[in-house]
Specification:
Blueprint: E1 12-19, E2 30-37, E3 40-47, H1 50-67
Antiparallel strand pairs: 1-2, 2-3
Length: 81
Amino acid sequence: MQNEDTGLIEYNVITVEKTTAPEGMPGDNWCRYVIGKGGSRIEGKKPGSLHEVSRHAETVAEDLNSRKGKGGSMYAPRKRS
């Protein structure tokens, strides 16, 4: 999705679907979500209802979008003067 204010492509939730628990994890109420931006994809699994996991994925996407313009990733090397 493109932000109308900045013209930049933003992260958004692509899909949320029921799935099986990751190996070694208990429970049978798991969902898989995919968040994307252009060719980038972030996949995760989380226990909960479709609604709960959808809200979680939306929050993650909003958080990722709010980080742009704040000096880059915390994993990127520090810029030196």
